Each structure stands twice: as C-alpha cells, then as structure tokens.
Amino acid sequence: MKLQEILRKLISDNAIHARFLNTLSLMENTGARKISASEHKTKVSYIVLKHAAEEARHAFYLKKQIQKVGKIEHFATYENDYLLAPFASYSYLNLLDIQVCKYLKKTLNLSGADLRFAAYLLVTYSIEVRADELYPAYQEVLDEAKSKVNMRSIIVEEEGHLAEMITQLQAFSADWQIHAQKACEFEQQLFDNWVDAIGKELAN
C-alpha cells in the first residue's frame, strides 16, 4: 500500500490510529534520546539542546493526541501491543545510526566524540527531511477526515529543525551535501521497510 492509502486506512479506526500516534511518539522520543546521547560532555550548543528538548516535547504532544481518538491510559507505554510495526519502529533510528556511523568511519575516518556528533548531524538531517514529508501528508489526511488530531505545531517546528541542521552541516563540511545524500539513501530504505511493515499489519 502507498503511504496516503495507509494513512487513510489507519485513521479510519480509532484504536489503530491511537497505536500510530503512540508509534510516532516512540520514534520522536527515540530521536530525543539519541540527540542527548550524542552530546559532548562540555561542548553542547544551544541548537543541540533546543532540538533535543523539542523532539522530547513532540513525543509528549503525540502521546497527548491519543486522547482525541482513545483513552491515553490504554497506551501508557511503548510496549509492542501499543504500537504499529513494533520491530520496524524500534529499529528504525538505531539501524540508521549504525549505517551512518559505518559510512563516516569508512569515508571520513571519524571516531569517538567526532563520530557521534557527525552521525547526529547526518541522521537528524535525514529524519528532518522525512518529517517534512510525513507530517504534512498525515495532516492532509487528518483534514480530509475532519479529525481532531492535529500535527500543525510539529510541522512548523520540524521545518525549523531542518533549516538548523543545514546550517550545522554547512559548518561541518564543504561536502556536506554528498554525506547528507548518503544518509538520506539509508533512511529511504528504512522508511520503505517501515511503511511496508505497517501496510502488512493493516492488511491482516
């Protein structure tokens, strides 16, 4: 199934919609935790702190949105039963991080704190590119269905995140676009796998 078809199908069932919101919350929370884990002990910039805080807030916001389609207490945790495509959702960012780190080690011979920061830049950039596609597509379907669930505040912040990531990448490397494109290629495969996994779950 195509993404728009999947989104329309999942929001037509409140229980499934709630699981999708919880899944997005999980992924935003995973992103926030990964940003924090990538931080240098002392050299932490304003932008990195801001980004980690906003990703954590997105996770909380998405969790709260569940109240509009179901009982939030039924989705209190990120356990498998409360998610869509749990394996693909849990592994998405972790696999992307691993692939980007391998690429950076091989291509730029980075290690330690330098590797963690470069991986943060590229992984986050590719995820922000995805967010700038996924959340507007989701909002369009929500508008069509006149749903009370709303992604507009996240969309605005994710647009700002992408601009901030580009600024940081430009400072990181003159060849940032080459490295960023590679990260996006890794992410595209993982996104396709995630969408396929959700589609198969909805088809059962």
Continuous helix count: 7
Distance between the termini: 13 Å
> Could you list the spans in which at least 5 consecutive residues all have pLDDT below 50?
none
The 3D shape can be described as globular
Series of secondary-structure elements, N-terminal to C-terminal: HHHHHHH
How many structurally independent domains? 1
Q: What is the average per-residue confidence, as pLDDT, rounded to a whole number? A: 93
Oligomerization state of this entry? single chain
Total DSSP E strands: 0
Radius of gyration: 17 Å
Which bin fits the share of residues in helices? over 70%
Question: Which structural class fits the helix and strand makeup?
Answer: mainly alpha
Estimate the strand proportion: under 5%
Largest sheet: none
Summarize the structure in words.
There is one protein chain. This protein has one domain (3-203). The protein is built from seven helices and no strands. It has helices at residues 3-11, 14-38, 46-65, 86-108, 112-144, 152-172, 176-203. α4 (86-108) packs antiparallel against α5 and α5 crosses α7.
Question: What topology emerges from the helices and strands here?
Answer:
Elements: H1 3-11, H2 14-38, H3 46-65, H4 86-108, H5 112-144, H6 152-172, H7 176-203
Helix pairs in contact: 1-5, 1-7, 2-3, 2-4, 2-5, 3-6, 4-5, 4-7, 5-6, 5-7
Give a quick summary of the entry.
With 204 residues, the protein is an all-alpha fold.
What are the key terms here?
204 residues, 7 helices, 78% helix, 0% strand, globular
